[in-house]
Amino acid sequence: MYYIGIDGGGTKTVAVLSTSKGHILAYQQQTAATNPNRVGLDRCLMRLHDLLTDLKTQHPTAYANVRSIYCGVAGGSSSTYQQAIIASIRPALPEHSFITVHHDAIAALYSATLGQPGIIHISGTGSVTYAIDALGNEHRLGGWGYLLGDEGSGFAIGRSAIRAALTHKERNTPLQKLILQHFSTDVIENVIPAVYQENGRDAVAQLCPFVFQAFEEGDPLAEDIIVDSANGIAIQLVSLINRINNHGDGTIVLAGGVMNQTAIVSMIKCALSKETSSWSILTPTVPPVIGALIAAIKPYEKVTKAVETNALRFLKQETDYK
C-alpha cells in the first residue's frame, strides 16, 4: 500500500506519494498557499486537486493503491473546511482510501517526533502552540490569526518592530535604519500606508528578519522585542505542559521560519530551563510534508526511522527543496 502526505501552508503547498518506508514515488510543490482562511475555500480546493493530479500523473499505479491520505492544511481545524475538502477530493482518490484533513500543526510535530506525542510551537507568519498527549488527545493554544493573537510570530515581531521605530524615532537605531531601507523611505511614518494595504500582514511579517539583524548589531530595541517574544512563547509552552498534566519527560518541538533564528531559540530554551529541565527540545529533522506522510501511515503501519532516512535521501536530490 501507498500513502500521501500534503502540507498546505500559508505560502506554499507540498505533496508526496510514498511507501510506508518513506520511499517517495511522486513529489510536487506549489508556490501557492492553501490556507482557506487566506486564499478562500475555492482556491484551496483547486490547488489540492492540482497537486493530486500531478501525483497521479507521476505514478498512476501507486496512486491507484493509496491507502491513506493526510492533508495538513493551515486553517484546517475548522470542521466546515474539513468536510468541504474531503467531499471535494474524495472523487479524485481511490474509493478504498481513507482521507484525514486537519490543521498543519500535527504534520509539523511529527516532522520532529516521527509520530510520537509531544508539544510544538510553530512561528511562521502566524503562530500556534499545540500538543498531542500520550493518550492521543489534542491540546491547543493560539493559532487564531493575527487579529486575535499570533504571539511570537513573524507578524507579531514585525509589528513590534514598527511600533518601536515609531515610538523611538528620535533614536537612530540599526532597527529603524533597516526598516527605512526596506520601505525605501527616509521618514518612518511613510511605512504606515504599506502596513494597511491588502497585503499588509505579509509586509509586516517581512520585517521579522531585520529585527534579528538589528539584534546582532547590538540594537537594544531589537533585543527587547526578541526577549519578549521568547518569553511569551515559553509561557504558552509551560501552560500547555500544565494543561496536559505531564510533569515528567517529554518532547518540545520548535518549528517555523522564526525558529531558524538561533537567538530566539536560545532565549526560549533559557526561559524554559527552570520549568522543563527534563524535557527534550527539538527542531524538525524533515520538512512538514513528511510529518503529514507519517500521520497518514501511523494508523495503519509502524513508523520507523527508515521513513526519515529515505525521505531525506530523496528530498536532498530535489533542486527546489530547502
UniProtKB/TrEMBL annotation:
<feature type="domain" description="ATPase BadF/BadG/BcrA/BcrD type">
    <location>
        <begin position="4"/>
        <end position="295"/>
    </location>
</feature>
<dbReference type="InterPro" id="IPR002731">
    <property type="entry name" value="ATPase_BadF"/>
</dbReference>
<protein>
    <submittedName>
        <fullName>ROK family protein</fullName>
    </submittedName>
</protein>
<dbReference type="Pfam" id="PF01869">
    <property type="entry name" value="BcrAD_BadFG"/>
</dbReference>
<dbReference type="InterPro" id="IPR043129">
    <property type="entry name" value="ATPase_NBD"/>
</dbReference>
<dbReference type="InterPro" id="IPR052519">
    <property type="entry name" value="Euk-type_GlcNAc_Kinase"/>
</dbReference>
